[in-house]
Each structure stands twice: as structure tokens, then as C-alpha cells.
Amino acid sequence: MAIERTNKNLATFCKQVIGAPYWFGTFGNKADRSLYNSKKAQYPSYYPPKSWAEASFTDDFGKRVTDCAGLLKWFLWSNNMTDKSPTYKASEDYGADGFWGQCSEKGSISSLPKDKIGIIVFNGTASKKTHMGVIVDNDGTVVEAKGHAYGTITSKASSWGYWGKSKFIKYESTPVPVPVPSTCTVELSVLVKGSRSGQVQTIQMLLNEIGFKDQDGKRLVTDGVFGDRTEYALMNYQKARNLSVSGICDFETWNRILK
Known about the structure:
alpha+beta; Muramoyl-pentapeptide Carboxypeptidase, domain 1; 6-stranded antiparallel beta sheet; 8 strands
């Protein structure tokens, strides 16, 4: 089964491949002599004798290797998060500038959205992007395949020039935790039949939550209107909790139901 193409899965995938060696023109391929010879013939300026020593490549044999755009292609073309074996897809084979052109949203790094996970970052000029990485945390941590001397490493979004949301990725918002005070003070009112307020709605919601229904065995309508049905459910609650069965939500009833 293919990996679901969400921004969170992309971030998880990229974190898992930190340390992968950089070979230009690759996308998670397993390095061996055949791959080396193929890429050396295809991109001679990036391979010996025009670049690094051959030993720096042969030492990588047996490992999965990638370049900067290959990092995204590796994720898109892998069937699972375990062996990460990619299957080439010509329709999604882009370099950094091509992936920039395929972004559904984009901008300068100064306009980077607050929810950053899975966003692609780019360096280059306004007219041509030459390098890319993936933001993996909302603190702005980027995973990038930087070059043969570095491999796949982390950096910070602030060192990049542009950002984009890839059209190949489904971006899901990350829930932001909201601090909850340890205590709060609420002024409660005695509620009787005929009352109309948000506190009546709260009582209706609480009675529904703990299973006390109206005369017809139905959940209360949470409309904030204290009518016969709310009174019926409340009286049954009071009876079940050995409270005074008055049908009035007094302070004793409030105290018990809020607990």
C-alpha cells in the first residue's frame, strides 16, 4: 500500500532518512556499482573524475541515496515507511525549479505560514530555484539533501528564500494546544422552568451527556430554553442522585452535575 501523501507523513519520512548520502540525480535508490556507473554517465560533472574521489561514492554502496529534489520524489514514490523502496514515476519527475512551478501556494520565506509541517522550502533566484528541502517541524526545522560533502542534514527555514505547498501533498492543519486554566470562577444561576440562557443550554448538554432523556426517551434539544422536557430529565437526574426532586436546577444540583 502506498504511503498516504500527507504533510505529516512527508515530515516523518524525511526525519527518518536524515543521514542518507547525497548522490546527484537519485531519489532513494540503493547505491551500488551499477547505479554509480549509470549516474556518472548521465551527470559526469557531478561524479569522478570531475568531482569527488570515487571512494566517497563506493563507501556508500548498500545505502539509499538521494539529491535535494529526490528527497520529495523518494517519499512520493515509496510504497511504505519501512524499506522505502521507490518506483520511478515520470509524471512527477521534477527538479527544484520544476517542483516550485508545481506548488499550489507559494511565497517568500518572510510570509511562511504558521503551520509549517511538510512545506517545501527553496533557494535560488526569483526566476529559477536551484535547491529545496522539507520543513519537518513547526519550529522551522528543515531536512535537506545538501550536497555530496554533507549528505541529508537539518537546517533552519530562516536560511531559505522561498516556500511552497506541493500540489502532490495533502496539507492537514496541526491542532494547536490551547492552555487550560487550572481553576476558573463561574457565576451560576438558579434555573427554573421558563428560564432562557446559555446556562440552561449547559444543563441540557450535561443531561444528554450522562444519559437523562425527555418523556419520549429522546435527547434534549440544546436550545437554552427550560421547558417541560428539560424539567422532566432534570427531575429524573435529581431522583437518581438522591437530591430534592424539585425540577429546579438549584446550587446543590449544579454542584452535583458539574462533578
